[in-house]
TrEMBL record:
Listed GO CC annotations: nascent polypeptide-associated complex
Residues covered by region (Disordered): 1-31
Highest taxon listed in the record's lineage: Eukaryota
Pfam families per record: NAC
Official protein name in the record: NAC-A/B domain-containing protein
Domain NAC-A/B positions: 22-61
UniProt-listed InterPro entries: EGD2/NACA0like (IPR016641), NAC_A/B_dom_sf (IPR038187), Nas_poly-pep-assoc_cplx_dom (IPR002715)
Its biological purpose: May promote appropriate targeting of ribosome-nascent polypeptide complexes.
CDD domains on file: NAC_NACA
Organism: Pinus pinaster (Maritime pine)
Coiled-coil residue windows: none
Length: 61
């Protein structure tokens, strides 16, 4: 449930190099966009651990 614009919740990619997003990942990305976060210089990757098995990764915050 990644809530990011260019979130790095990486899943298996196809031949074109684009990853296939699940419905929950799309919803999470949309919700992350609504947070209105601003880029911080020097930060290249952000990881947010929500629970034992849920990890949000933003590769280009």
């Amino acid at each position: 449930d990644d809530k990011e614009d260019d979130d790095g919740q990486e899943q298996g990619g196809d031949a074109n190099g684009k990853s296939k997003q699940s419905r929950s990942e799309k919803k999470s990305r949309k919700a992350m966009l609504k947070l209105g976060m601003k880029p911080v210089t020097g930060v290249t990757r952000v990881a947010i651990k929500k629970s034992k098995n849920i990890l949000f990764v933003i590769s280009k915050p």
